[in-house]
Amino acid sequence: MARKMLGLAVATWCAPLLVACAGAPGATPITIPDNLNVAPPQTLSLEVQASGVQIYQCAVAKADASQFEWRFVAPQADLFDRDGKKIGRHYAGPTWESIDGSKVVGAVQAQNAGPDAGAIPWLLLSAKSTSGTGVFGLTQSIQRLQTVGGKAPAAGCDQAQLGKEARVPYQAIYRFYSARS
């Protein structure tokens, strides 16, 4: 009887935790498009949730000087671990910097529109450079997945708006890969 009561108490206590985990970002496996897979023999070293903005500036269109377009400037986001603790930031470069001082600067290798037409694309990036001995120090590849928002404004870029900045909220999961040890 005592064993059944203990089992019931544990089940009652764990149920809310299981429900919360089921809804957490990254809890559901992500189907990654083939063109965004990392080269072997790399292994996942870190997964973070990013929350911030994609920054755009209204500029003269590259293809037609009589037109105007929102041109991407840089990301600006905080990086969080699975427990919601801030572990770093993401900014121009594109650069990811950890609170431990390590950094990685990426270069886009491939992209995929992803399942959400209203969000910025999913990406595969290679590490152009790394520094420090912390979590980003040995990074070889980065994936940007499960994006929400972040696309340039659909309207509002004209002669009167020239030079204006737009900061569009976005979220994403970033996965960092290093050589298998």
Give an account of the 3D structure.
With 181 residues, the chain is mainly beta. 12% of the residues lie in helices and 49% in strands. It has one helix and eight strands. An eight-stranded antiparallel beta barrel has the order 1-2-3-4-5-6-7-8. A hairpin with a 7-residue loop joins strand 6 and strand 7. The radius of gyration is 20 Å and the shape is globular. The chain starts with a helix and ends with a strand. The model is unreliable at 1-26 (pLDDT under 50).
Oligomer: single chain
Low-confidence stretches: 1-26
For the biggest β-sheet, the strand order reads 1-2-3-4-5-6-7-8
Rounded mean pLDDT score: 87
Shape: globular
Helical amount among residues, as a percent range? 10-25%
Keywords for this entry:
181 residues, mainly beta, 8 strands, 12% helix, globular, disordered N terminus
Short note summarizing the structure:
By secondary structure, the protein is mainly beta.
